[in-house]
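Sample entry (71 residues):
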Amino acid sequence: MVWLYIVIGIVGVILGVVLGFFIARKYMMDYLKKNPPINENMLRVMMMQMGQNPSQKKINQMMKAMQKQMK
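Predicted structure, serialized as tokens:
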């Protein structure tokens, strides 16, 4: 009878870990879609710090490439 409680406990812990992982993953994916880590202004500042003079076309290309990579 005691072994039944042990098995139920182990199964419960495993299910909790798996379920928690997928819930956390879904939450982070939604958060990153709503709040992208880099926007156009940040990208422009980074390029200027590297000594480049970014055009709007170059900024748009880099933003599209990053969004494509995120998917």
